[in-house]
Structure formats: structure tokens, C-alpha cells
TrEMBL record:
Keyword annotations: Aminotransferase, Pyridoxal phosphate, Transferase
SUPFAM superfamilies, per the entry: PLP-dependent transferases (SSF53383)
Residues carrying N6-(pyridoxal phosphate)lysine: K165
Entry GO MF terms: transaminase activity
Name of the protein in its database record: Soluble hydrogenase 42 kDa subunit
Keyword Transferase: yes
InterPro entries tied to this protein: Aminotrans_V_dom, PyrdxlP-dep_Trfase, PyrdxlP-dep_Trfase_major, PyrdxlP-dep_Trfase_small, SP_NH2Trfase/AEP_transaminase
PANTHER family, alphabetized: 2-AMINOETHYLPHOSPHONATE--PYRUVATE TRANSAMINASE
Pfam families: Aminotran_5
Source domain of life: Bacteria
Cofactor or coenzyme needed: pyridoxal 5'-phosphate
Length: 325
């Protein structure tokens, strides 16, 4: 059996810094801090940095993961406004401009890039343009967009990512990308959320699990990422066309569809849970067990996660049969 790596060894340090550089290159960010934990932990760390600003902000909500950001923000006792739009839609520049005009005190905006629950991709360049013009700091939850669509974080204040989801490695590492330096804030933040401590310690202030970092390194090297983005786009086009042919009610319109996930809002006469179970019995894996999916009677086909299931013909054929019942 191979001996476990020490997270303090020179060779691990070299790999760790290489992973940080590769991550930054993938999303065009200057720096990244890597934390042991889930994507939601990265959001808590972002909330901690926003708390240090002591300025009010705006949280954008258009689904489950936007609502999660409210919880992250409340956990850090932030003061913020909420802008909510119907699920299945993307934010429009006028939505943001109106809100910023009504509340000129807003110093930061925080929302999801891909709202994974609804399968909607928001327009990052539009967000940047709106924020840039007004000196507002933009924070983005990119947990499901990194690794599935091209992401350019130049000019973004803080953005979260994770080793699972789009990057396709084992879950367990959370990331916060940044383009400015952090100061440690020992009096104001919990140790593990204090990104300034991470930066000050070359990224490793506390124990990190080397196997997770090496798994991420392997995943980062496994693809030509531009090919992967094209692959995801092709899958999206083809699955959405096939679903349209059987009149499956796709939630997000083509104009704002996130390519790695398609959410289907089943009519009430069908049970998402029963259909998900049936498909699973036939070896087709889709998402349907999360509470927010069960509550809404939604199912999702996805090209994310370590298995890259990419449901296709068989999924659509079985779904058609179920919808005809
Ligand atoms: C999955 C997801 C999260 C939560 O990530 P966890 O690793 O489950 O904590 C947050 N935001 C988005 C957009 C996600 O897709």
C-alpha cells in the first residue's frame, strides 16, 4: 500500500501550487484559495469576505441555489436586499439596473452563474458590465459552470467553485477565486473561513487531503477543456431537441439554457419520483431525489459529476413511454 502523502511535503506543495495555477488558468482568475469541504463552504467563505466590507449588497434569487446564497449571507449576518425572479428565467440587465437605482447603497451583488436547479445560465458578461459601470463588486456562484462552460472571472470580485460538479473530480474541495489580495481577519472571521489566512500560508493554513488534490489534478489534465465545453454544448443541443420532439416540458428556454443540465417540469399527473425510479431500474440515471426537485415534480438530466452519465436516446425513449401513460 502506498504511504499517504504528507500535506507538508515538498512534492505535495509543488502539485498543490500547480493545481492552483491550472484552476486560475481555466477561469482566467488571478488567485484561488482551496478549502476542504463542499461548494456551500466556499459560499460561506465568500460571505465572510463580504461581511468585512460592512456594506449592504444584493442577492439574486432564481432557484434553489440562489436561495442557498441567502442562507450563506444570513449566516454571516450580512445586510442585503433580495431580487427574486421566477424559476426558469435568467436575470436581465434592466432587472439589475432598476434595483441598483432604487438602492444606491448596494456595494456588492451575489448570484448564481448557472442556477443548477432550473438549468438556467445567467449572462456573466452582462453582470460584469452592469457592476463595472457602478463600482459594484460582483460575486458569483460558479459551482456548476466551471468545467461545463467557458468562465472568464476577470473583473469578478469573488467566485466559488468545487472539485465535484463540472470539474468532474471527487467532491470535497471548495474553491474561492479572487483577483485582489486578502488580509487575514483573525478578530472577525472563523479560522477555517478566513481566506486571508489561506493566502498568507501559500494556500495551506490547515490540513488538506492530498488525495483530493491529486484527484483534482488528474481531472484537470484529463480534458482539453475547450473540447469538453463543445462536447457539453453538443449534448445539450441534442438532448433538448430530442426532448422537444416528445413534448417534454423543458423548464429553461433555449435562450438561457445551461448546457450541462436540463430540468424537466413534469405535469402534475406524473410523479417525478416514480419516473426517476423507473428510469433507474432501466439503468438510466437522472437527478430527481433532491428535496427541491421532489417538491416541484422536476427531473434533471445532466452531464456533470464524476460519472458523466450524459443521458441520451434511451432516456428520451423511456421518458416518452412514461409520459404516454
Ligand atoms: C451544487 C451547488 C451548490 C452546493 O454545492 P455543495 O457541494 O452541495 O455544497 C451551490 N451552488 C450551485 C450553483 C450548485 O450547483
Amino acid at each position: 500500500m502506498a504511504l499517504p502523502f504528507s500535506h507538508r511535503s515538498d512534492s505535495f506543495m509543488t502539485d498543490f501550487q500547480a493545481v492552483r495555477r491550472q484552476l486560475c488558468k481555466l477561469v482566467n482568475a488571478e488567485q484561488v484559495e482551496i478549502l476542504m469541504g463542499s461548494g456551500t463552504l466556499a459560499s460561506d467563505a465568500i460571505a465572510g469576505q463580504l461581511a468585512l466590507l460592512c456594506q449592504p449588497g444584493l442577492v439574486l434569487v432564481s432557484g434553489e441555489f440562489g436561495r442557498r446564497l441567502i442562507e450563506n449571507a444570513n449566516g454571516a449576518k450580512l445586510f442585503f436586499h433580495i431580487l427574486e425572479i421566477p424559476e426558469g428565467q435568467a436575470f436581465q440587465p434592466a432587472d439589475l439596473e432598476q434595483e441598483l437605482k432604487a438602492h444606491p447603497d448596494i456595494a456588492w451583488i451575489w448570484g448564481t452563474h448557472c442556477e443548477t436547479s432550473t438549468g438556467v445560465l445567467n449572462d456573466l458578461e452582462m453582470y460584469k458590465a452592469v457592476c463595472d459601470g457602478r463600482g459594484v463588486k460582483l460575486c458569483m456562484d460558479c459551482i456548476s459552470s466551471i468545467g461545463t462552460v467557458p468562465v472568464d472571472l476577470a473583473g469578478v470580485y469573488l467566485a466559488s467553485g468545487t472539485s465535484g460538479k463540472g470539474l468532474g473530480a471527487a467532491s470535497g474541495l471548495a474553491m474561492v477565486f479572487h483577483n485582489h489580495d486578502f488580509e487575514p481577519a483573525p478578530d472577525d472571521l472563523p479560522c477555517c473561513l478566513d481566506l486571508g489566512r489561506y493566502q498568507a500560508a501559500q494556500g495551506i493554513p490547515f490540513t488538506v487531503q492530498p488525495s483530493l488534490v491529486h484527484g483534482l489534478q488528474t481531472a484537470l489534465q484529463a480534458h482539453d477543456w475547450n473540447e469538453r465545453f463543445e462536447d457539453v454544448r453538443d449534448w445539450s443541443k441534442s438532448i433538448r431537441r430530442k426532448l422537444a420532439e416528445i413534448d417534454a416540458p423543458i423548464l429553461a428556454p433555449d435562450s438561457c439554457a445551461m448546457p450541462a443540465v436540463v430540468t424537466i417540469a413534469l405535469p402534475a399527473l406524473h410523479s417525478s419520483e416514480a419516473i426517476g425510479d423507473t428510469l433507474k431500474d432501466h439503468g438510466v440515471h437522472i437527478s430527481y431525489r433532491n428535496n427541491y426537485l421532489l417538491e416541484r415534480n422536476w427531473i434533471q438530466a445532466s452531464m456533470m459529476g464524476p460519472e458523466h452519465h450524459r443521458p441520451a436516446e434511451k432516456f428520451v425513449r423511456l421518458l416518452k413511454k412514461e409520459l404516454a401513460r
